[in-house]
Write a structure and sequence with these properties.
5-stranded antiparallel β-sheet; alpha+beta; about 170 residues
Length: about 170
């Protein structure tokens, strides 16, 4: 039964990942859904009798992030960080676990924007000029790692934030 549970979960997870890998907005790379969700994907491996699954994605600039899911066959339970509160979430119900994974994935665009704001705040601290900030943001549209790139929407929001958070010279 437990082998069936993990296989059912991995099949459903593959289907979920495919939804985030497809570009629903056409062929414009600046509006690529895959980029907006950090090129989210998963990898699974067995370790000491349990199955580990890593949900992997990038934030702008190419920093890789991972959400770890653990499946212990003897218990028939999955465990992963809770998406909405501190601590872990544990369940034997595949659909509940998939819902929690989905909640994590839905937070990726917000986490990507937080990362862009961190860059911008750092550049402001370093006294980088507005044109140079815009140039650096533009360069992120063409980063080597697909998930490390930014979309047109992210570029627009980041530019707005850069202007709004700019401090007046003393």
């Amino acid at each position: 039964m437990c082998k069936r549970d993990i296989n059912e979960f991995l099949q459903a997870l593959q289907h979920l990942m495919m939804r985030y890998q497809q570009d629903e907005r056409g062929t414009d790379p600046g509006r690529d859904r895959c980029v907006a969700f950090g090129n989210v994907r998963y990898q699974s491996w067995e370790d000491g009798g349990q199955v580990n699954i890593g949900i992997i994605y990038e934030t702008p600039g190419g920093s890789t992030n991972q959400i770890n899911i653990e499946f212990v066959p003897e218990l028939g339970r999955f465990s992963l960080p809770h998406a909405h509160e501190p601590g872990d979430f544990s369940s034997a119900d595949v659909q509940e676990v998939l819902a929690m994974v989905h909640a994590h994935i839905d937070q990726i665009p917000e986490k990507r924007m937080e990362r862009l704001k961190e860059y911008i705040n750092s550049w402001h601290t370093e006294a980088v000029s507005r044109p140079d900030i815009f140039e650096r943001l533009n360069q992120l549209m063409f980063a080597d790692l697909r998930g490390g790139r930014i979309t047109h929407d992210e570029l627009y929001e980041a530019c707005r934030y850069a202007v709004a958070s700019e401090k007046e010279p003393a």
